[in-house]
Specification:
disordered N terminus, alpha/beta, globular
């Protein structure tokens, strides 16, 4: 890990490092048109909160689900409401969408504290972008350098097979940029040959010390972890071997799960595996890594 990232202080509770909220009363979220019917409704904090409380979650990281400033602003408003509520969730942060193709506009936003309220990272739905080389564009690379200078990591979603190798290339090219690999890159459960390729690519990415990975969203990979528990264990073992618990963080990926809006459906098997680790290793994955990586500008 980066030497300038301090060790996580002692704390209680768990951080959900990957939670989605959206409101379908307005525009956006076009990707939901192809999602399961049960998922095509608003995802509200009121529905998520009691499920998170049952897992002793005290910090939530809201992750963008649309490539718009409107989505970013909606999450910032939600984070402020969450922190104002009298609940066990004491802190809420945002992995936001910011205009990576417009480095000048990005620079203005990074210089405006009001635009960065609760923001601890940046993400874009690059897996849905028509250009597979999006992260290689000169303007995007300039923006990524600005993120690195500001201390904001880049989340990379659903990377395998399209972007996992590219994530390693970006880590090499942009000095100081922390890359957060969402959902372990989405390992292809149920396909032995593809799982081998995924493991090799994940191992290669892990050689870059500024990279971390999320144990999240694994119940929606390929045929599903609930149908291939051996693949889920293999994925977790591979992640632990190559990244170590100090470079892994847990997220629910709610409400996206085998049973939409059912947090337990997507997390129980994974949390059971994490619970088999030493307590210090559990603490790193469930809280410590997120505390080190996801920090607000100026913290």
């Amino acid at each position: 890990m980066r030497e300038d990232i301090p060790a996580a202080p002692p704390a209680t509770g768990t951080t959900d490092a990957h939670l989605h909220l959206w409101n379908l009363d307005g525009p956006g979220y076009g990707w939901l048109e192809g999602a399961p019917a049960a998922l095509r409704r608003s995802a509200t904090w009121e529905e998520a909160a009691p499920q998170l409380t049952a897992l002793d979650v005290t910090r939530a990281v809201l992750v963008q689900a649309d490539d718009t400033l409107a989505d970013t602003q909606a999450m910032q408003a939600a984070a402020a409401r969450i922190e104002a509520d009298d609940t066990p969730i004491r802190r809420a942060d945002v992995v936001a969408w910011l205009p990576l193709e417009q480095p000048a506009q990005l620079a203005e936003l990074l210089a405006d504290p009001s635009a960065l309220t609760h923001v601890v990272g940046v993400r874009q739905l690059i897996h849905d972008h028509p250009d597979p080389g999006y992260l290689d564009r000169p303007a995007v690379r300039e923006s990524l350098a600005r993120l690195a200078a500001a201390g904001l990591p880049l989340d990379v979603p659903d990377a395998y097979p399209r972007h996992l190798v590219q994530a390693a290339e970006v880590a090499d090219a942009v000095e100081g940029l922390v890359i957060v690999l969402d959902h372990l890159g989405k390992p292809p459960f149920g396909d032995g040959e593809a799982m081998g390729r995924w493991e090799r690519q994940l191992r290669d990415l892990s050689h870059r010390p500024h990279t971390v990975a999320k144990l999240s969203g694994l119940a929606t990979s390929g045929i599903g972890a609930e149908q291939a528990p051996h693949d889920l264990r293999r994925a977790v073992d591979v992640a632990l071997e190559h990244f170590g618990p100090e470079r892994l963080l847990w997220g629910s990926d709610w409400p996206i799960a085998p049973q939409p809006f059912d947090l337990a459906a997507g997390t129980t098997a994974l949390r059971d595996l994490i619970g088999q680790l030493e307590l210090t290793e559990q603490t790193q994955i469930l809280r410590g890594t997120a505390e080190r990586i996801y920090r607000r500008v100026g913290d």
